[in-house]
Each structure stands twice: as structure tokens, then as C-alpha cells.
Design a protein that fits this description.
alpha/beta; D-Maltodextrin-Binding Protein, domain 2; 3 domains; disordered N terminus
Length: about 375
């Protein structure tokens, strides 16, 4: 930036900035001394020039700090669970509405496997620019840290929570032909046939796996865990009588319960579910003290700019407040939550501590 001084004008990068003519001196006798008006005008001229410089420099600073334009291209939302699972349903619900709101496609990319580790690790190691997100769940971000000795990501340090979307109870399901009508009957049957009955889950380390382990531990029974590649496969396992029972996320099981292809004995939460209000909780139906649930939430890689996190959070909460989405999540057996990033972090910390106790007490480990 070039400034050229003269008596009556200043050239600033080739542009004229006119100032008044300032007398160089006032003569007193034979001496030439500066007068007060000269000093004042000189100060004013200097101040004006400094003002121009400040304005130009400030303008450059403002443009450098201009808000990031986001999104300007497609967003990937990675799903660490199998298609058709609870997280998949939530991801597609939120993804569709973000696409409609921003005019940029949100592509749902399923990367199931290893209890959610494969998809979660991919997001943890991706560029933190807001264009790769994760629809995480309690298994991938609360259970795994205690279950796996060498987890390739830290659920708290390697991710920035965006918003907790919803929660859903797990539900104890059996094949309609199994001669049980309640949780109490199920426990009695397992005690009568130790080691013969099996329970399925959507994979090692899933909340369904740990929910089954908690059931086994509190009931004092011997049942064998059978991991499947995703909750929908475990649901199918119960429907085909391949396994005795499962305590799975409610969303993928609910349609089959309503059609009569599955028999439900109880929900895992401390209160009954609005989706199946006639169904008792596992605790009230024969196993006092039992409580387990899962959550689904959007996360970004650690280091994602705060303003992008806030923009995502604001839009997701707006989506969750719409009647359409509320009804859709409720029809799938879930409860809308919505949270700030800080509230989401607090939930994860509490959940990690809770499931760590279950893992330790049950002796379940995946190395």
C-alpha cells in the first residue's frame, strides 16, 4: 500500500484524498515558529491519514474472517451399522431433511462391521471440514471403549458431538412358538435348560450384546451369545427360530411385532414405550433393576470448525422440532431428544461410565 504526501492531497494507492492547504509556518519577527493552528491541522491531517489506513486494513481483516460458506458440496454421513438398523433410519431421516434445507445432497454411506468400529474409525480419520459426519450410537461411542482393548479411536477426543438426535428402548423378542409369555417365564425356561438357549445381537460390542449380557448376569442364567452382522439379521434370526431370543433396538423389530411374526416380552427402559404401551418393562415383568437403552447422534471429526458445528446443530434441532419428523421417529419407536454439542458430550461421558461397569461385571471382552 503506497502513501505519497504533499501539501494539499494524499495519494493512497493511486487514489486522491483531498486535504486542506496547511501553512507551513507563521512568521514572528525574523523567526519562523509553528503556530497552534498549524500544529492542530497537522495533527488532524495525520489523524485523517491514519483513519484511512485503519479503514483499509480493517476491511482486509474483516474479509479474512468472513463466515465460512457451508455447505457448498455433498455431505457424507457414514453409518457404522447395517442398513435397516435404528441408526440407519435416523440417518436417512436427518439426511433427507438437511438436503431439502440446504440444497446439497447428504449421502448415507453404510460401513458396518466390528461393532461400529469400521465406520467410526473412518470418520475419526477424515478431514475435519464438515463434509464427513457420523450417525453414531451408544454401541460405537459408549460401549466399545470398555469392550475393546485396542480401540482405534477415542470416542471423546477424536470426535466433536453435533447433536443427540433420539433414543430408543431395546426390546426382548422371542419366536411366537417359544412357550413363554413373560420375562419371568423366559428366565425360568433358561434356568431349566442351562446353556441351551441363545440370544442374538447386531454384533459384538453393540448395546444389544451388552443388554443381553446384563440380562444374563442379573437373572443368573446361562445363555449363549450369537452375534449377527447387524440388527436386521438378528431380527431375522429370531423370526426363523435360529436363536431363542434377542434384546434389540426397537425400530427394526417393531413392524414384525405388530405383524405377529415376533413375540415381545418387555422393553429395556425404566418406563414403558409409547410405541408399545401395552408392553411391560423387563424390570416390572420379572427382572427388577434391569435398565438399558440406546441413543443415536450426529458427530463430526475432532477439529471441525465451531461455526460449522453450530450451523449443523441449529439445522438438526430445527428438523427435530417439525411435526413430521417427530411423528416419524415416534412411529419407529424412538423418542426425539435434540441437544447442544455440550449436552451430547455429557451424555456420552455418563454412558461410557455406565457400560464400563456392565462390561467389567459381565466379563465380556473383545480383543
Amino acid at each position: 500500500m503506497n502513501f505519497v504526501y504533499c501539501n494539499s492531497l494524499c495519494l493512497v494507492d493511486g487514489m486522491e484524498a483531498n486535504f486542506w492547504e496547511v501553512p507551513r509556518a507563521i512568521t514572528f519577527g525574523n523567526e519562523k515558529k509553528p503556530g497552534n493552528s498549524t500544529i492542530m491541522r497537522t495533527m488532524l491531517r495525520t489523524s485523517a491519514l491514519m483513519g484511512i489506513m485503519f479503514t483499509i486494513l480493517a476491511s482486509g481483516t474483516t474479509s479474512a474472517q468472513a463466515p465460512v460458506k457451508y455447505p457448498v458440496k455433498a455431505i457424507r454421513m457414514i453409518l457404522p451399522s447395517a442398513p435397516g438398523s435404528g441408526p440407519d433410519i435416523m440417518a436417512r431421516t436427518i439426511g433427507q431433511k438437511l438436503t431439502e434445507a440446504w440444497g446439497q445432497p447428504v449421502v448415507i454411506e453404510a460401513r458396518p462391521g466390528a461393532g461400529g468400529i469400521i465406520g467410526s474409525e473412518a470418520v475419526a480419520k477424515s478431514t475435519p471440514d464438515g463434509y464427513t459426519l457420523l450417525m453414531g450410537n451408544a454401541g460405537s461411542h459408549s460401549v466399545n471403549v470398555s469392550l475393546y482393548a485396542k480401540l482405534p479411536y477415542d470416542p471423546l477426543k477424536d470426535f466433536t458431538p453435533v447433536a443427540l438426535v433420539s433414543s430408543a428402548p431395546n426390546i426382548l423378542i422371542v419366536h411366537p412358538s417359544l412357550p413363554v409369555k413373560s420375562v419371568k417365564d423366559m428366565i425360568a425356561l433358561a434356568k431349566a435348560r442351562p446353556g441351551e438357549l441363545t440370544f442374538g445381537s447386531g454384533g459384538n460390542g453393540s448395546t444389544a450384546h451388552l443388554s443381553g449380557e446384563m440380562f444374563r448376569m442379573l437373572a443368573g442364567i446361562k445363555i449363549v451369545h450369537v452375534p449377527y452382522k447387524g440388527a436386521p439379521a438378528a431380527v431375522l434370526g429370531v423370526m426363523t427360530n435360529e436363536i431363542s431370543m434377542a434384546i434389540l433396538n426397537l425400530p427394526p423389530a417393531l413392524p414384525h411385532i405388530k405383524s405377529g411374526r415376533l413375540k415381545a416380552l418387555g422393553v429395556s427402559t425404566t418406563e414403558r414405550s409409547h410405541a408399545v404401551p401395552e408392553l411391560p418393562t423387563i424390570a416390572e415383568s420379572g427382572l427388577p433393576g434391569y435398565s438399558a437403552a440406546t441413543w443415536y447422534g450426529v458427530l463430526a471429526p475432532s477439529g471441525t470448525p465451531r461455526e460449522i458445528i453450530i450451523k449443523l446443530n441449529t439445522e438438526i434441532l430445527k428438523i427435530l422440532r417439525t411435526e413430521e419428523v417427530k411423528k416419524q421417529i415416534a412411529s419407529d419407536g424412538g423418542d426425539v431428544i435434540g441437544s447442544t454439542p455440550e449436552e451430547f458430550t455429557a451424555v456420552m461421558k455418563t454412558d461410557i461410565a455406565k457400560w464400563a461397569k456392565v462390561v467389567q461385571a459381565s466379563g465380556a471382552r473383545m480383543d
